[in-house]
Amino acid sequence: MKKSFLILVSFFAVACSKTLEVDSPDFNVTLDPARLIADTFTYRLGDTTRFKFNGTVGNITFYSGEPGKRYDGRTAAYKLGRITLSFSSKSEFGTQKNTLQVLATNKLAGLDSATVVNAAWTDISNRGALATSATVVPFGTADLTDLLANENDSLFIAFRYSGVTGSTQRTWTITELAVNNVLPEKTVLLSSFSTDVAYWTRYGSVWNPSNGRWTASASDLKITGGGGSAASNTSWVVTKPLYAGRVPGDVATGIKSINEPDKAEYAYVYPAPGVYKATFVAFNHTLDEDKRVIREFIIKVTP
Question: Pairing relation of β-strands 49-56 and 137-138?
Fold first, then answer.
């Protein structure tokens, strides 16, 4: 009986230690040889690039070679390019002057009201144009790179409103905001209204009525000024921390998963002229093993 027990334990030990192995991918890609000039396949804008497949593999992903879709850029990194701010504004009602400031800092220890008000802000209002009437005015593209120490630094943007009792206070609307890290190979969006609507922090000296503070939506920031008898009002709205140099890894398009049958081809239309490195990654994997092959092509798209 004891001998049988030892044999059973040994069997399960071997079974549990067995590695889940996979086969190496059997996968190749071809393009129309008539398109090949030297080492480059050439197409006209609007042409369909047809990648022909043969072989059997569980999974296939595709990097087109466009900005944000490059195999060589798949790993996240920190890289500081040119940090830019753009938005548009309009200022309605009343005639009060200098009621809006645009501020920026990389030195903000917290988002409580005292820390925000007393922070070392840089006034960047004069780096662009602000509205003086109900006509929408683009601020332009302001370069804020000089406000950052390095690629690991963070940035905060604030809009500071001030209205004074005694005359109609102005109503401001800010639209089309974008903060970008502009790199040679791509542009990384750091902030916009649609992505950050829930992350603006607001402060104001007037909270009743509620229009004495900024409101944020997926399309704008707005503060509604009071009438001549309304109390003086100073109101702030501040972005979340913007990690200026954080560059997400480029992404691939999934072409085939292990649950799908083999595919004969993949068709793609490049949206703009240029030279692209198209990359297919074909792989089989389990919890224990990952085996893959990479197929790359230089694609030139002419006007």
Answer: unpaired
